[in-house]
Structures are given as structure tokens and as C-alpha cells.
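Cross-posting from the modeling subforum.

Setting up a comparison between two proteins and wanted a second pair of eyes on the formatting. Protein 1 (sequence, then C-alpha cells):
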Amino acid sequence: MLMEWTGPHAGPWFLVFPLLWIAVVAFAVWAFRGGWRRSRWERDTAGAILGERFAKGEISAEEYRERLAVLEGRRR
């Protein structure tokens, strides 16, 4: 039976399926280790909210700069 899979008629599928599974496992590891971090989204959302508050006039320019500096300090 092994000869059927590795014979001259096996074609490229002999390498495609293992490579596909390796790609699926690599993607899963990347996703679970923080490829899509929620904290990044939360910080971007905080910056957007801060910008909206400044645009509406709810906070002063000085207060906006101070709070933005705090947010950017967390990003690094």
C-alpha cells in the first residue's frame, strides 16, 4: 500500500497535504500566542475615543496631549 502513495502516480499531493497541515498548525500557534492581541485593539480604541473627546471639546489640548502620552507610553 505504501507504494501506491509514493509511486510515480502520487503527484504533488505527496508534499501538499503535509505542508498544508504544517501551515494550519503554524497559524494556530501564531493566533493563540498573540497574533491577534486584544490589548492592541483596546489601545487603538482608547486613542480613538480620546481623539473624539478632544474633537468634541470635552477635554483641552493640554489634557489631550497628557493622556495621549500615557497611552503611547503603554504601547512601547
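Protein 2 (same layout):
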Amino acid sequence: MDIAGLIPTFGGFFFTIAAFIVALSIIIAIHEYGHYIVGRWSGIKAEVFSIGFGPVLASRVDKHGTRWQIAALPFGGFVKFLGDQGAASDRPEESVLAGMSPEERRATMHGAPLWARSATVFAGPAFNFALSFLLFAILLMFRGVTSDPITIEDIRPLPGEVTQELAAGDVILEINGVAVPPSDEFSDFSDMLVRSPELTYTVLRNGVEETVQGPWFYPPLVLSTTPDSAAEAADLQEGDVVVSIDGVEIYDFDQLRDAVGNSDGQPLELEVWRENAETRLVTLTPIRRDLPLQDGGFETRWLIGMTGGLLFEPAAETPSLGQAAAYGANQISFIIESSLSGLYHMIVGKISTCNLSGPIGIAEVSGQAASQGWFSFFWFIALLSTAVGLLNLFPIPVLDGGHLVFHAWEAVTGNPPSDRALKYLMAGGLTVMLALMAFSLGNDLICP
């Protein structure tokens, strides 16, 4: 990665950092609040709830005796429970515990029953998943789902002289004599038609069926760009239309997709039309990406990071709570499955290890997502929150998953791991995490 490209301007650098801090602070705050509130419900007292590390900038003590604080280094957070030596709850403060009554020891993490400790530890990742679920569901409620039958909300402007007789409010019944399927099946509809720059549409307009002419319904139009992509770097914007590729005129988004997919990473010259602006030429170099598939595998493709859309904006309706909930759960499930599958495929060498991003890459994407608007930014937070919850469940000492493994050992043997074993296991876990961080940071600096 070109560091100069990461920081195009001084102001852009601080915007990227600010977006990263905001996203990370929200996710960490929810994670730590899960530990805190479930610990409190199960009778474990929290002494400190901190967002950030280092010198304390502001703090207050609540009626439960917990000090809530904001610290100077905003790249993490912690909850320190009663009787802990430090923020990790890995070792008790024996001198403190020794002077406590049985009732007082019950309020510590190390003196609480196993069920209370396990629930408190698991609550952090669980709250991350809950945050993702709520954000995905709420974002779908805001965006809406395409109504049936498919109705035109607004016509998107296109270049050229192709006849355009469609209008807002039209209900599309047929295209070239083929009945239009429900919205959830419409993505494959183009395969049923003979491709042509101009089509015949049968529409219901003001209660009367009419036959009108219009362009191919899936033009090479930019609906959105992916952060950290060639399209984003080339300043392609929503509403732009690709008129030609290497001098060859196109009218169908699939023509653009095929040209990019067959480029083998060679630069492509795109002629881009923008409403109320001059047509311009841009050169984009497709980037090789490993994309997760629904069956758990991966597909390697060349991409420029551009998402297409219909020639019109379809009317949308608010989904039911059940639809929103199902969507949120499905998104979390897909992220978890593709993350685990990606990790496995990287370990066995089937996909590139460059798919593992580090702090620089995540910060860059957070800044680019924020620059695209609040919807994109909160979508990124939902995705990252699921990733953080999953990572914390890995059975590595110093992570929540490692603590849950210790609790499982205690449940089976009747005794927790010895202090000596804990010391070495925690040191080993910290080494693994530092090595993983160094490796991902190297990816940020080296990988394209």
C-alpha cells in the first residue's frame, strides 16, 4: 500500500483517523459495556469502566461505585473488576482478596461462581453481535426493500440518444414481451432477454397499460464505489455512467464486468459521463480480490470496486420487523462464515494472506466509508463489530475466548489452571496477538 495514497492531504489524514476512532470507540464501548452490565447483573462489582488507555481525561463515579472514564489513548478500553490486578482479569490481587469476607469475595471476578464469570466474559462478544444485528436491521428499515410489483420511483439520467419514454410511477409489467418477476427474482431477469440498447416496456400508467420504449435496464452506471478501490481512487461518483472501455462503446453493466474480469490486471481506459459535466477519460487498474461465496468457498476476480444499478430508482417499502430481524441475522451469519472460511483458506494457501487487513487498512476503510455518508459508515461499524466479536471468541489467552477455555477447564477438572500455567499461557497469547498485529500491519504496508 502506498502510504502517500493513504494520506492525500493533511485534512484527509485527520478525517481518516477521526472516523477510525469514532468507529472503534463505539464498538469497544459496546463490547466493554457487555462485560460490565452482565457482571453487575450477576453480582460482580466493576471498579473502572474506561474508554481508552493512559492518562485519564475525564471521569465520574456512579452510584454503584464504578468510575467511568475517558483516557488519552482512544484505541481500546477495559473494565476493571473488583479484586483484579489489572484490566485483563487474568490474575487476582491476592493481598486484596485475602482481607475480604466471603460476601465481599463473591463480588469479585475471581470469587464469583463459574457461571457468573463465564457469562460476564461471553457478554462482550455477544454485545458486539447484538450491535451488528441492530444496525443491520435498522439500516434495512431506512433503506427499505423494493416493492412488488416493481414500480419506478425516479428515472436516472443517462447519456446518448436512446429513446426514453419511461416515467416515474410506471409499474413495469413486461420487458420485450417477457413478464417481469417479483423483485427478489429480478437480478437474474436479464438472462431471459436478448440484450439490446433499446427495449420495449409494457407498463401500467395511471391505471392503463401502455407500451413504451426505453434503454437497457441495467446500464454501466455507478450506484456506489467500494472503499479502498480503483473506482474510489478515480473519483467515480454515484450517477456516473461508463460510456466506453478502451474506445469500445458499451450499454450494459455486464459488458463492463466482463472487460474488468478479463483484464488480467491490465489498466483500462474508461470514458465516463457525468450529468452537467464534460465526459472524461479515466484509467483504472483492476485489483485482484478473493471474494467469499455462499457455499463457503472463495472466487478470485479482478475488480475495480464499482457497484451498478438499474436505469431507474425502484419504489421501496418499509420491511416488516421480521424481515429486518432476519436480514440482520443473515448478515452476521454470512460475515462469520466468510471470515472463518477466509482464515482457513489463507492458512492452507488457497487465497492470498493480503486479505488480512491491519490497523492502517481498517482506518483507511473507515475514513472512506465515512466520506460516503452516514449509511455507509454505520454499515462499516456493523461489519467491524461482528469481526471484533468473532475475533474475541478465538481460544487465545488474553482474548475472551481464551478465558472461556480456562473456565471450561475449571468446569471439567474442578480447578482453574495454576498461576504458573496462566502466566505462560497469557504470555504466549500476547505473543500470538502481537505477531498477528505485526503481520497484518505488514500487509497494510506491502500489499496492493
